[in-house]
Amino acid sequence: MNYKFWQRKKDATKKKKSKTREWVDAIVFAVVAATIIRVFFIEAYTIPSGSMERSLLIGDFLFVSKVNYGARIPMTPVAFPFAHHTMPLTTSTKAYWDGVQWKYHRLPGLSKIKRNDVVVFNFPEGDTVAVENQAESYYALERSLGRQQVRSTFTIIDRPVDKRENFIKRCIGIPGDVISMSNGIANVNGKNEPLKNTGMMPYRIEFKTMDFNYAALDEFNLNLGNSPAVATNTYIVDASPEIAEKLKTFDFVKSVTLSPDAPGPVQGGVFPNDPNRAWNRDNFGPIKIPSKGWTVKIDSTTMPLYYRAIRTYEGNKVEQKASVWYINDKPATTYTFKMDYYWMMGDNRHNSADSRYWGFVPEDHIVGKALFVWMSWDSTASFLHKIRWSRLFMGIH
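-> structure tokens emitted (397 positions)
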């Protein structure tokens, strides 16, 4: 006698899944698994601009670790899978629902952000966006055109922290650091921090003669033809410190010198856009980077630097009545910060929208640490040379 006859009867009543149901189950599982991996472990990004050249090139595809600094819990949890802030094939349709917003929380990480780490973060000024001109900061548009003109010309939308544009830069300063820049050289806590050999700055190259074989310069991609001469046999081109040193060894080169912007004149759009500070992209500071628990004195000197951090990033009501500052409707002479902040700059110093233009990056905007390049695609090269084989699986430093 088969004592399991009832089991055969039970199995016989089971319905076999259809092929469609099997495919649906597989797709749902894959989407959920991929979402968990990209939110909590690792995510792929691409480099769209030259702000980090020569460290990272346009067309580099890289992996970013969420584990190193601790994965950020989604702040806007209801969103379309694999889309960031806009639905595919559209320019303004939201890929998320901001009706549900969670407070900022981060899982424990392997380490804190260190100076010179290459970091992915959400664009701090990306909280407000002009849909028809997303390449430029809304606040830059407002400064140049005026608030009323911008609001009447463009469609304006707001974005939550984790749905703002992703940027990648090098961390120059960590919480508590005092940073400045003089003649194109960054200074952190009183010590000069020379540009990495993979970074770019304008250099003034004076040739002894222009009668030489131009092919000798091909490996450096200097593009002399696109750089008008600033004096006899003299050009200003973007180059790295390493390239500058190599150029000095050529017998037809007379001199190679760094050519930053001169100190003094105010350059429009440079943080904190204070008319009392004659700063530009190569000469600014000193600025102390806020750290959690640090108390700053509030006055006419400090508020241009910290107003946005206190009001926008930390969610306080800030206003000035006569000469008195009010925070949450109470007179305030000091403020204690609730978050850590960072100072980010691109390696291609004269082709980078970074902290020099919009200030500090709050800790809740940090996405992850760039690890390595898994693919590099040169869209301008010929068919057989489009893949930059030497960059595949290259670590990012």
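The mean pLDDT is 91.
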